Automatic annotation (TrEMBL), chains A, B:
<dbReference type="InterPro" id="IPR001537">
    <property type="entry name" value="SpoU_MeTrfase"/>
</dbReference>
<dbReference type="InterPro" id="IPR053888">
    <property type="entry name" value="MRM3-like_sub_bind"/>
</dbReference>
<keyword id="KW-0489">Methyltransferase</keyword>
<feature type="domain" description="RNA 2-O ribose methyltransferase substrate binding">
    <location>
        <begin position="33"/>
        <end position="107"/>
    </location>
</feature>
<dbReference type="InterPro" id="IPR051259">
    <property type="entry name" value="rRNA_Methyltransferase"/>
</dbReference>
<dbReference type="GO" id="GO:0008168">
    <property type="term" value="F:methyltransferase activity"/>
</dbReference>
<dbReference type="Pfam" id="PF00588">
    <property type="entry name" value="SpoU_methylase"/>
</dbReference>
<dbReference type="InterPro" id="IPR013123">
    <property type="entry name" value="SpoU_subst-bd"/>
</dbReference>
<comment type="similarity">
    <text>Belongs to the class IV-like SAM-binding methyltransferase superfamily. RNA methyltransferase TrmH family.</text>
</comment>
<dbReference type="GO" id="GO:0032259">
    <property type="term" value="P:methylation"/>
</dbReference>
<keyword id="KW-0808">Transferase</keyword>
<dbReference type="InterPro" id="IPR029028">
    <property type="entry name" value="Alpha/beta_knot_MTases"/>
</dbReference>
<protein>
    <submittedName>
        <fullName>RNA methyltransferase</fullName>
    </submittedName>
</protein>
<dbReference type="InterPro" id="IPR029064">
    <property type="entry name" value="Ribosomal_eL30-like_sf"/>
</dbReference>
<dbReference type="InterPro" id="IPR029026">
    <property type="entry name" value="tRNA_m1G_MTases_N"/>
</dbReference>
<dbReference type="Pfam" id="PF22435">
    <property type="entry name" value="MRM3-like_sub_bind"/>
</dbReference>
Length: 269, 269
């Protein structure tokens, strides 16, 4: 029977709560907190190393099947009282299931990027729901991975994890504050680098030949890509639109851009 | 100087609050409530008939420019105290600007649909954020309009209005509980009717000839389209995907499907 934690002052709990709220503590520890029965099960199924599993007595009745899968790989297990679980939760109605997970080693170094795939590079994406949605779509479409450039929000934040529906556990991603120097590396390695811009004079995304491995750069919703990134890329592309182009939001435009990049590989006519 | 409303018991306020919370009251009155300086300004700019404008003294200082545009078309104007504004608000941090607006007359009758355009038909979309996002993308891509079939959530709900970024004010839409009988009407009028399905045996969306006016049917996130709708359509289409197809969410898949439908019209190669 796992140990019961009844106090919000418990050091293990305080540490897990801090992993949920503080990006710098996550980076320092190389750990992050996952919330929710299904998302924790996804982490286990995706081969994420689960250091600690916390669950409430209520959750053990409601999510027996999910918990069974998580328990098989979790290194430590604790039962927590609901008022303790509330401290770990980022949601209004917590399910009472949480895992402390280990970040993937080495996945954040751009030098490790695999050749031969198409990649998406994001600059300064601030909205966690947008970032999560883009990662989810990238995984669905079979993108090789995502480069997070500039000051994107942390992929390991509770909101991004949730919106990504677990894509964060499986999709390769690379943190790179300085995107301009990354473009130099991509060009050297034979990637085509394309900046997505809302400019009808740019090349239409539909006329791009995506035979060569390509990195597509997408900026944040309000400001788009920085001028330095646009200038460093080998070309600029745009989505031709008949309607009110300013209405296309960041995750929808990223979906269309990624789709065009993968269209032929996916067997599109 | 507009009249000041200081009481939450004021009948005008109670009625406006009910327009925000109750879809049946909205339908009965033919009115809806819009919240936020920018969204209310969008309504005014889009030619929506604004019956009543409410704003707080704080808002009049912060959103002077937006309010100026709204005031020019509003039929009645009231200043409200912050605790009264809170009653009208659907958000955590209200801006203190609200409009009671009139629904467009006749736009909900399928008989009024304009020929020669491509349309999107949604069945049983339950999530307001998803519905708003889809309407927003439809407007950006120049879709002729959206048919809301089965039991979709109300387009005039505060969450849909907000997520649509005002597309509800401009995009034609049609309410049609019985989609199967609507398909009969579309077929008679010369539209191609296509059901989007997650079935790799269906025709690839990339190989569809969209020369003829088409209505594309998209189901809800959990269950997809009903069997009756799929059977009634003239064909079924699917998005070919290399990755984890189950990861594509409703608004991203609707974006890709609409994009493919409009791709050639938009000048795609």
């Amino acid at each position: 029977m796992p140990e019961l934690i009844t106090s919000r002052q418990n050091e293990i709990i305080k540490r897990a709560a801090r992993l949920s709220s503080a990006a710098d503590f996550r980076r320092e520890q190389g750990l992050f907190l996952v919330e929710g029965a299904r998302l924790c099960r996804d982490a286990a199924q995706s081969g994420v190393c689960i250091r600690t599993l916390f669950y409430t007595a209520q959750a053990s009745e409601k999510y027996t099947e999910y918990l069974g899968e998580i328990q098989r790989t979790a290194q430590e297990i604790y039962i927590v009282e609901p008022h303790v679980a509330a401290l770990l939760s980022d949601t209004k109605t917590p399910q009472g299931v949480f895992c402390v997970c280990q970040m993937r080693a080495g996945s954040d170094k751009l030098e490790n990027i695999e050749p031969g795939f198409h990649y998406l590079a994001l600059e300064n994406i601030q909205d966690p729901a947008n970032l999560g949605a883009v990662l989810r779509t990238a995984e669905a479409l079979g993108i090789g991975g995502v480069i997070l450039g500039g000051s994107c929000c942390d992929v390991y934040s509770p909101k991004v994890l949730r919106a990504s529906m677990g894509a964060v556990f499986r999709l390769p991603f690379y943190l790179q504050a300085d995107l301009v120097s990354a473009i130099g590396l991509f060009n050297k390695r034979g990637f085509v680098t394309l900046a997505a811009v809302p400019d009808s004079a740019a090349q239409k995304i539909t006329s791009v030949d995506f035979q060569k491995p390509t990195v597509l750069f997408v900026g944040n919703e309000g400001n788009g890509l920085t001028a330095a990134v646009i200038a460093a890329c080998s070309g600029s592309v745009t989505i031709p639109m008949l309607g009110r182009a300013e209405s296309l939001n960041a995750s929808a435009s990223a979906a269309i851009l990624m789709w065009e990049m993968m269209r032929e590989k996916s067997g599109g006519a």
